């Protein structure tokens, strides 16, 4: 008897016939691969999309912020020319804000008071503002912080030049002090010294710690409590808000604009490179979600292998008949291997389409820009084929070893 042959067309025909005969089982087999590949494409696409948004926000905020720190008094023995208690000149806000690319600038420092007693009542012993911060700030700081007012207004240069006792509260500090309305001209008291509250900050994009603090004019603070402390945390600082991309230029020019004769009195901190932080976050997220996607694919592969093995057991009689009619073991193995590979490929195609649809839908709902890398979308169906091929290896070998006589006796 001549050896039987199985052409490629016959192979695919037999595999298709096996899948169509049990459509319910084939659909359930597809489901594992669909979920695995769909999760693979969706999580990678969402990670790329979310990382783009994170990087964009980091860039917008960090690339527009410059900080200058007063280096303080030189070490003993190195003192040359007499130094002013604060190296920032009186018109520091105007000088730096006038630089090309700078939007606003303001000087601030923590008031040099140890455990100040802040309260909304002048009564001795009242201390309903425990834990609040007390800051001396120039008028330009509010614009540099990009504050949003909850009530009232901020103080201006007139208040500062005349050393007026006015204060602006952060929203949290105002709540702690029980101040919500300004029409009755409420006051806060710092160690018994009263300040009229003229504004409450509702939010701020920079220096969020001021929401839990009391801000008073820098000139008033120096008159009442003295100059900034020479220690690192107590030194005077300047916050500068710049145009996007102008921060390095402003950081280089601001010290000279403040003190042309001694620009070394200030340490300008250029914005950190956000790309490194963005890439680090993206790598962490990608690694995590790749692991989750791999787990989904393994679950899908186990599902295909299990279903194919059950199909082999159910079709033992059919296998025996085919062997008795002349089919060779490799023909039987090729049929089951083709079935599992085709099912994996179909699952990969459907899963890829669902994953892309999920990424696009989420991006549209959040008004984001969908980012889909070609290296995640194009190979995804092939990943489904590979999963189906690997999952079908053992069941197909099991089918190839079925003896015809034994199969027909069952």
TrEMBL record:
Q: Which UniProt keywords apply?
A: Cell membrane, Membrane, Transmembrane, Transmembrane helix
The UniProt entry, under InterPro entries, shows: ABC3_permease_C, MacB_PCD, Macrolide_Exporter_MacB
What is the source species? Kitasatospora setae (strain ATCC 33774 / DSM 43861 / JCM 3304 / KCC A-0304 / NBRC 14216 / KM-6054)
Limits of the ABC3 transporter permease C-terminal domain: 291-404
Q: List, for all copies, the residue spans of the domain called MacB-like periplasmic core.
A: 26-246
Give yes or no: UniProt keyword Cell membrane: yes
Checking Pfam families in the record gives: FtsX, MacB_PCD
Question: What's the main place this protein lives?
Answer: membrane
Protein name as annotated: Putative membrane protein
Question: Is Transmembrane set as a keyword in this record?
Answer: yes
Q: Name one GO cellular component term.
A: plasma membrane
């Amino acid at each position: 008897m001549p050896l039987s042959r199985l052409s490629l067309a016959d192979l695919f025909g037999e595999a298709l016939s096996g899948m169509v005969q049990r459509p319910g089982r084939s659909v359930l087999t597809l489901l594992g691969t669909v979920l695995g590949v769909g999760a693979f494409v969706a999580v990678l696409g969402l990670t790329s999309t979310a990382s783009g948004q994170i990087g964009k926000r980091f860039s917008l905020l960090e690339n527009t912020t410059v900080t200058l720190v007063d280096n303080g008094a030189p070490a003993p023995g190195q003192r040359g020319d007499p130094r002013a208690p604060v190296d920032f000149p009186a018109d520091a806000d105007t000088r730096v804000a006038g630089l090309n690319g700078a939007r606003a600038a303001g000087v601030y420092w923590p008031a040099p008071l140890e455990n100040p007693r802040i309260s909304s009542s002048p009564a001795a012993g009242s201390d309903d503002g425990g834990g609040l911060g007390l800051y001396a700030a120039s008028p330009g700081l509010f614009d540099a912080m990009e504050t949003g007012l909850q009530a009232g207004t901020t103080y201006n240069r007139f208040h500062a030049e005349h050393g007026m006792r006015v204060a602006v509260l952060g929203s949290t500090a105002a709540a702690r002090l029980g101040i919500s309305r300004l029409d009755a001209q409420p006051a806060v008291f710092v160690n018994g010294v009263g300040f009229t509250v003229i504004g409450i900050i509702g939010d701020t994009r920079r220096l969020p710690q001021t929401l839990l603090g009391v801000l008073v004019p820098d000139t008033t603070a120096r008159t009442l409590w003295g100059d900034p402390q020479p220690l690192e945390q107590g030194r005077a600082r300047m916050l500068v808000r710049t145009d996007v991309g102008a921060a390095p230029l402003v950081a280089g020019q601001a010290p000279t604009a403040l003190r042309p004769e001694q620009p070394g009195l200030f340490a300008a901190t250029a914005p950190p490179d956000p790309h490194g932080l963005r890439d680090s976050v993206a790598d962490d997220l990608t690694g995590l979600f790749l692991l989750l996607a791999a787990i989904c694919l393994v679950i899908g592969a186990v599902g295909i292998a299990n279903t194919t093995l059950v199909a082999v057991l159910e079709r033992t009689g059919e296998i025996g008949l085919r062997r008795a009619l002349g089919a060779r073991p490799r023909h039987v193995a090729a049929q089951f291997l083709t079935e599992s590979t085709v099912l994996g490929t179909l699952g990969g195609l459907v899963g890829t389409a669902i994953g892309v649809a999920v990424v696009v839908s989420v991006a549209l709902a959040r008004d984001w820009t969908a980012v889909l890398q070609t290296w995640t979308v194009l190979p995804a169906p092939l990943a489904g084929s590979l999963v189906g091929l690997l999952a079908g290896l053992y069941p197909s070998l099991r089918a190839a070893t079925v003896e015809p006589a034994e199969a027909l006796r069952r």
